[in-house]
Amino acid sequence: MKKEKGDCLNNISVIGTFLWCFLSFIIGILILVMLDIFVGINVQYDWLLSLTILLPFFTLVWRLKRKQILIEPICGDVRSFPNRRNWLKILSTEMLITVFSLAFIMALLFIFSNLFPDYMIDFINSISEVEQKGSILLHIITLSIIVPITEEFIFRGFLFRKWCEKYGLLAGAMLSSIIFSVLHLNYGIAGHFLFGIFMCFLYVSFNNLWVPIAVHALHNFVLSTTSYMLERSSDGGEINIEETLNEIALFGTVGGVIAIITLPIVIFILRKYYLAIRV
Predict the structure, then answer these.
(1) What is the distance between the alpha carbons of residues 105 and 223, in angstroms, rounded to a whole number?
(2) Across-strand partners of 76?
(3) Which listed site, 15, 120, 211, 235, has its alpha carbon 20 to 30 Å from 167?
(4) Beta strands in 87-246 (DSSP E)
(5) End-to-end CA gap in the chain
(6) How do residues 187-232 score in pLDDT, each as one tens digit?
(7) pTM of whole model > 0.70?
């Protein structure tokens, strides 16, 4: 990656920065809990998500400023955006990764329902009892704007860039994507690992952090709005356990086949990106 004056991350510790960010996360939780207990302010899920994500973001910016590391080189060349043809390739790849991720999740649910049927029944029952709170508009804004900017700055702008300088392009992409996927365990670890690597390659390809931010934002917007529409279309009645397990078996089998088909295609495309940028 291109380096400029004030763009060296060697003098900032990953572990130390992580601890500071985690501390800010805990402080945000405590503030919300105290507001609820002592002031009586019922903080909705969306505000909780916004605050707990924004505090680590500003903590990282503060740490970079203290180490006299410039923010501008991390953001890259904001004028370097893909042309129309490149956007079609990027969005097609992102869509393929999303299809693989959803198919992989369905296959895992099917396997999990066979290994731990009692736990899966309890999980299905718990879903029917979940009550969605907060403004859907705020929820979509949080996932489509706040989350992409924060996560891309932390995982690609900081972690990937630092480890890329230290270990090389591929190792940096894989290490940062492992951390990224582990923190998204409940949304599908395999899909987020491939998505993270793709975002790293886009960041290097265009030397512009706003490119992966834009793709990440579109990805979250589509998933959040689709999820909301599916929830609205459901009747909200009691879930039939036997019928749901049969659907998991059907979709899980189909998902396994789709995952097996799409995985080598995704790897092939990511390899082409890697070969194009490693020089």
Answers:
(1) 14
(2) 208
(3) 211
(4) none
(5) 10
(6) 678 899 999 999 999 999 999 999 999 999 999 888 878 776 656 6
(7) yes
Region of residue 99 (phi > 0: left; psi between -120 and 50: alpha; otherwise: beta): alpha
Helix-, strand-, coil-residue percentages of the chain, each rounded to 5: 80, 0, 20
| Residues 208/76, Cβ–Cβ less than 8 Å | yes
Q: How far apart (Å, rounded) are the C-alpha atoms in residues 274 and 171? A: 12
Can you state the angle between helices 241-277 and 117-129, rounded to 10 degrees? Answer: 90
For residues 128 and 121, what is the distance between their CA atoms, to the nearest angstrom?
11
Distance CA 277, CA 160 (A): 15
Q: Tell me how far the alpha carbon of residue 241 is from its chain's centroid.
A: 30
- Residues in the chain where the model's pLDDT stays below 70: 1-8, 40-49, 120-135, 186-187, 228-245, 279
Rounded distance between C-alpha atoms, residue 101 and residue 153, angstroms: 23
Whether residue 104 contacts residue 189, with contact meaning beta carbons closer than 8 Å, is answered with no
Distance CA 152, CA 216 (A): 8
* CA gap 12, 178 in Å, rounded: 20
Cα angle, residue 163 at apex, residues 22 and 198 outer, rounded to 5°: 90
